[in-house]
Design brief:
By secondary structure, this protein is mainly alpha-helical. The chain is built from 12 helices and 3 strands; from the N terminus they run βββαααααααααααα. About 35% of the residues are buried.
Length: about 260
């Protein structure tokens, strides 16, 4: 439909409202969504266009929980320091904590998901033998290009990320140990064979692989991760309000920089 000037109206399938209705994903918000869908289920519905199965919901929840908070990480510090300077704007502090999502922090789940997706493009129902061959070729290409292999290694959990086996276990229990999770496992084996250096699958990589296996578009994985981290950042701001450390951090840095 066009307006009188012949310009097409802007439309979205995400949500809309009138004077007496609110619609989300084509459903009446009060009667069909509120009290029936969790935030996890709604996020998946908006991204995938359908509700998750019980198994998919289990995996989605596990991923979100695994990524919500990791302590005083750069994202948490950025949020706390911003809050210290502008406590009247908690939204700015949350935004500051999310803006650093990239290849080192917060972003690896999305980077891994996209790489695995691209690597498996055109491969249908691969068995373990095919996955081993695909992994070897993909790892060789990354190493030859001087690039890191996504989804492997962790600066703290050098012997193994404790989240990873649990995510694989839950996915297997739900019958959702899909090709991307399986490929990532073969990637770790191929990387060690090629370099002689063991780098276990990290939790972010496993999370990214799990998300695409349950139907989250690879380009949306990083955004899905930020849903989880927002919860952690809001908690950091609540703690900062009650037990502030942001100003002390600033003062300590200032003292050392001037020394």
């Amino acid at each position: 439909m066009a307006d009188p000037a012949g310009v097409e109206y802007l439309r979205t399938a995400i949500g809309s409202s009138t004077a007496d209705t609110i619609t989300v994903a084509g459903r009446d918000l009060p009667s069909e969504v509120m009290g029936r869908l969790s935030l996890t289920e709604l996020a998946y519905l908006l991204l995938a266009g359908r509700e998750p199965t019980p198994g998919e919901r289990l995996v989605l929840d596990a991923v979100l929980v695994s990524l919500a908070d990791h302590g005083l990480t750069p994202s948490a510090l950025a949020a706390r320091l911003t809050y210290a300077g502008a406590p009247e704007a908690p939204q700015a502090a949350v935004a500051a904590g999310l803006l650093g999502a990239g290849s080192v922090f917060l972003g690896p789940a999305g980077d891994t998901a996209q790489w695995l997706w691209d690597t498996l493009a055109g491969t249908t129902e691969p068995d373990d033998e095919v996955l081993r061959a695909v992994a070897a070729g993909a790892v060789a290409a990354r190493l030859d290009a001087g690039l890191r292999v996504p989804g492997l290694g962790h600066p703290i959990h050098k012997a193994g990320d404790p989240r990873t086996p649990r995510l694989y276990e839950l996915a297997a229990e739900a019958g959702l140990l899909g090709p991307h999770l399986r490929l990532l496992r073969e990637v770790a084996i191929a990387q060690e064979a090629a370099t002689g250096r063991p780098l276990p699958v990290n939790g972010a990589g496993a999370a990214g692989a799990a998300l695409v296996d349950v139907g989250v578009p690879p380009g949306s994985v990083r955004g899905f991760v930020l849903i989880a981290r927002t919860a952690g950042l809001v908690a950091h701001l609540a703690e900062e309000a009650a037990q502030p450390i942001g100003r002390r951090l600033y003062e300590e840095v200032e003292r050392r920089a001037g020394g």
